[in-house]
Design goal:
The complex is a heterodimer of chains A (431) and B (334). Chain A has one domain (90-430): Alpha-Beta Complex (Spore Coat Polysaccharide Biosynthesis Protein SpsA, Chain A). Helices cover 39% and strands 14% of the residues of chain A. Chain A has 18 helices and 14 strands. In chain A, the strands form 4 sheets. In chain A, strands 2-7-6-8-11-10-12 form a 7-stranded mixed β-sheet, sandwiched between helices. A 3-stranded mixed β-sheet of chain A has the order 9-14-13. With 334 residues, chain B is an alpha/beta fold. Chain B has one domain (50-324): Spore Coat Polysaccharide Biosynthesis Protein SpsA, Chain A, CATH 3.90.550.10. Chain B has helices at 22-34, 42-54, 78-98, 122-133, 156-161, 216-224, 228-234, 242-252, 254-257, 265-268, 308-324; strands at residues 60-66, 101-106, 139-143, 147-149, 196-201, 204-213, 260-263, 273-276, 295-297. In chain B, helix 3 (78-98) packs parallel to helix 11. Chain B is globular. Chain B starts with 21 loop residues before the first helix and ends in a 10-residue tail after the last helix. The chains are: A alpha/beta (431), B alpha/beta (334). Chains A and B meet through helix 3, helix 9, helix 12, helix 13 and helix 14 of A and helix 2, helix 6, helix 7, helix 8 and helix 9 of B.
């Protein structure tokens, strides 16, 4: 058969009524009763399509495809409220949360026995175990209901002591949260009122000059937690820092500065001084052994400033936890809570010093190490030297014009008051 | 038209039909459809079948732990081989159906996980490694070898990930076999996403089947999950190794608590009768054919008088039956 090139007319259907499928002759009559066979085909196809769509839509939300029947909807709706160590909190409006230092002698007079509930330890009858009680309810005036005489200064200081830990800052209206918060723990058993006032005043002045927040707590507030595993009071800084993160949830950075440090330069602003990438990038100590002088684990060679969540300095004995900066994000919180985990505090060689736990963490956890930076000592913790001629090392000891002075170890020789006084006088004179 | 490179043509041009151009063939098809417009209805149908596979790159990786405890201590029996094969085939079918990635990981005994040194912490290491291997995937679903997906038509997106924060329990108040204190300071569940989907069996957390999302939180969790100081103090107490360790971390560290979402055991990890033997009358743990539970985990089937192979065959056959009854579900009336 000769095929040739098909013409257009060859391809066209031969007419409108051409049957689509060969239908048996016996049925043809019946089908012809309908106006159009196409309608039937349309109907069938639409039915199948719709059925498919509907079954898909219904199956995916239907019983076979979810686990709603296993879930207690009521339990699903109840979300725990975010709270700190105490369930009832006092909302304050001030950027500066610090205890009244004039209560120090009164609190000392009260002794821990009246500040906490206590019981005699079952193992050692000489030792008392203190514990918290959360039974003091907050009344409408944001104060703890007390049954005692409010005129008595001892009762007043007891009440202030109990209330202090419940204070949290929440932004309201025009009051915005500070971006940086300075955190300090103070010890009323170790220092006199005058000394404590100087420490707190120093932080308040600095925070005020730069628009930062301040969070100061009594170290004694954490005695029950410290007692759990016989931890040294140094560990209290971590609990205070965690409480500060709760008290200022929207702050971006927290700077823990111990009570044995003094801010000399109030004109230094932390963002441009340290926190911005371009300031931090050149000063990160890379490839620096974590355990000086020649530990096997070193900081990363390629740490980027924007990844850094934790900034700390180092002395020749190890990391200096008297002054460090922590970012308030999931890494910062996770790292801090891991550091304070009971199993860390319980470990015999860490119980005495939070620094040892930190050095362990940085050496064993690469993700944490990659977010940490060791920075030169004189950036945020220049060490005080009683005899400047004796120390030839100019990378860690205080020199005129440094930001912060850290009198590390002053408690051993009981010289903290004297040293602080000398810096305080110098600062007063220059103003 | 003279092409010098063309082979000499043996036939006369006049008798040969001209080769149809591509364009002409398209035109033919177009004309064919123009006269049968109902064919256009098939297009959306086609799209429905294809869409779920091609509109996104895989964001789910299924990690299947194979060769559990394998190594040099003894030989694998033919039945164990068979179970392993069925398990892999089951996950492969599921992954292909939904466009997920299946990643089979060898969990044979290795010296680096020997006793008193990190034994039982392979999961964290394998998760870290898999996250590096698939940098674009978001969710990672860990499955033990003795699990069997009973309802492979269920997609994880629909079943879990959609609206995840509102479909998981954010604390332990509903079911708390370990008696962990439900309330904890510093936990802000209202503002935290769920990065780990877990189920609890009669004895606490169950890591036979769990899902974890790539996030900063997860990176840190996988980093701190194993710590030598924790291990040294607890390795005699932590019978289930990383599972017990996770329970401890959950108990003591609020940042971990914040991002764990709990689902009922039967949502992702139903047990066959035989597991959780002390609570055999409690329906919340055991596979229900009527409810068409998603997955069976024959946890502990190699202990006592249970047999992994028997149990596995049972659920495999059951799935076949269930599937047969569903074959015509797309037609009206089925």
């Amino acid at each position: 058969m000769h095929l040739g090139i098909p013409k257009r007319s060859d391809l066209r259907p031969k007419g409108k009524n051409r049957p689509l499928l060969p239908i048996p002759a016996s049925l043809r009559g019946r089908f012809n009763d309908y106006k159009s066979k196409r309608t039937i085909l349309y109907a069938i196809l639409i039915l199948i399509t719709l059925n498919y769509i509907i079954s898909r839509a219904f199956f995916s939300s239907g019983k076979g495809h979810n686990f709603n029947h296993l879930i207690n909807q009521e339990a699903l709706q109840t979300l725990q409220k975010n709270h700190g160590l105490y369930k009832h909190e006092i909302i304050v409006n001030s950027n500066y949360i610090f205890p009244p230092t004039e209560h120090a002698p009164l609190l000392r007079e009260l002794t821990l026995d009246r500040l906490f509930k206590s019981k005699v330890s079952p193992d050692n009858p000489q030792e008392k175990t203190y514990y918290y009680s959360d039974d003091d309810n907050i009344n409408d005036l944001n104060e703890i209901k007390d049954k005692s005489n409010s005129e008595n200064p001892l009762d007043q200081s007891l009440k202030a002591f109990k209330e202090h830990g419940r204070k949290v800052f929440r932004p309201s209206g025009s009051r915005k949260s500070p971006e940086i918060v300075i955190v300090t723990g103070v010890d009323f058993e170790q220092f006199e009122q005058g000394h404590l006032t100087k420490i707190v005043q120093n932080r308040v002045d600095y925070a005020h000059a730069n628009g930062y927040g301040l969070y100061v707590r009594w170290i004694q507030e954490f005695i029950p937690t410290l007692q759990e595993f016989h931890n040294d009071r140094k560990w209290a800084k971590l609990f205070i820092l965690r409480a500060a993160m709760h008290a200022f949830p929207q702050a971006k950075y927290f700077w823990y500065l111990d009570q044995n440090a003094y801010i000399v330069r109030h004109d230094i602003e932390l963002y441009s001084y340290l926190l911005e990438s371009k300031s931090l990038e050149p000063i990160i100590l890379r490839d620096q052994p974590i355990v000086p002088p020649n530990g096997a684990i070193k900081t990363y060679k390629k740490t980027k400033a924007e990844d850094v969540r934790f900034m700390i300095t180092q002395t020749k004995d190890g990391l200096n936890t008297d002054s460090f900066i922590l970012k308030n994000d999931i890494y910062g919180k996770g790292f801090l809570e891991f550091w304070t985990d009971p199993l860390m505090r319980k470990y015999p060689s860490f119980a005495g010093d939070d620094k040892d736990a930190l050095m362990h963490i940085l050496q064993w956890h690469p993700v944490i190490l990659s977010k940490s930076a060791i920075i030169p000592g004189r950036t945020i913790a220049s060490l005080h030297s009683s005899n400047s001629a004796e120390e030839a090392d100019d990378t860690s000891f205080y020199q005129e014009g440094d930001f912060v002075v850290n009198f590390k170890g002053c408690d051993v020789h009981h010289t903290c008051e004297l040293i602080l006084d000398s810096y305080w006088k110098k600062q007063q004179a220059s103003e | 038209m003279s092409n010098p490179y063309a082979a000499p043509e043996p036939y006369s041009k006049t008798l040969k039909p001209a080769a149809q151009s591509r364009f002409l063939r398209l035109e033919l098809a177009a004309r064919y459809v123009r006269h049968r417009p109902y064919l256009l209805l098939l297009l959306p149908l086609l799209l429905f079948f294809l869409l779920p596979h091609y509109h996104k790159s895989p964001r789910v990786v299924i990690i299947l732990a194979a060769n559990e405890g394998g190594g040099v201590q003894r030989w694998k029996t033919p039945q164990e081989w068979s179970v392993e094969r069925s398990s892999i085939a089951n996950k492969r079918e599921y992954a292909e159906k939904h466009g997920y990635i299946l990643s089979i990981k060898d969990t044979a005994l290795k010296r680096r996980y020997s006793h008193e040194w990190r034994e039982g912490w392979e999961k964290a290491d394998i998760l870290k490694q898999t996250m590096r291997q698939y940098p674009d995937a978001e969710w990672f679903w860990w499955l033990d070898l003795h699990t069997f997906i009973m309802e492979p038509q269920i997609s994880l997106e629909e079943y879990l990930f959609k609206n995840l924060e509102n479909r998981t329990y954010r604390d332990l108040s509903y079911h708390n076999p370990l008696h962990i204190s439900v309330d904890s300071p510093y936990v802000d569940v209202e503002h935290a996403p769920v990065d780990l989907v877990l189920a609890q069996d009669c004895g606490g957390f169950n890591l036979g089947s769990f899902l974890v999302r790539r996030s900063e939180w997860t990176e840190l969790l996988l980093d701190v999950w194993w710590d030598p100081v924790f291990y040294e103090q607890m390795h005699m107490t932590w019978e289930h190794k990383e599972q017990d360790c996770l329970e401890t971390l959950y108990r003591t560290q609020p940042w971990i608590r914040e991002r764990v979402g709990f689902v009922p055991l039967r949502a992702i990890n139903s047990f066959p009768p035989g597991a959780c033997a002390e609570q055999r009358d409690d329906p919340q743990y055991f596979y229900s054919e009527k409810d068409r539970d998603f997955l069976v985990n024959m946890a502990g089937c190699n202990f006592g008088d249970r047999s992994c192979w028997n149990e596995y065959e049972h659920y495999r056959n059951l799935q076949k039956q269930l599937r047969k009854s569903r074959r015509w579900s797309w037609l009206p009336g089925f």
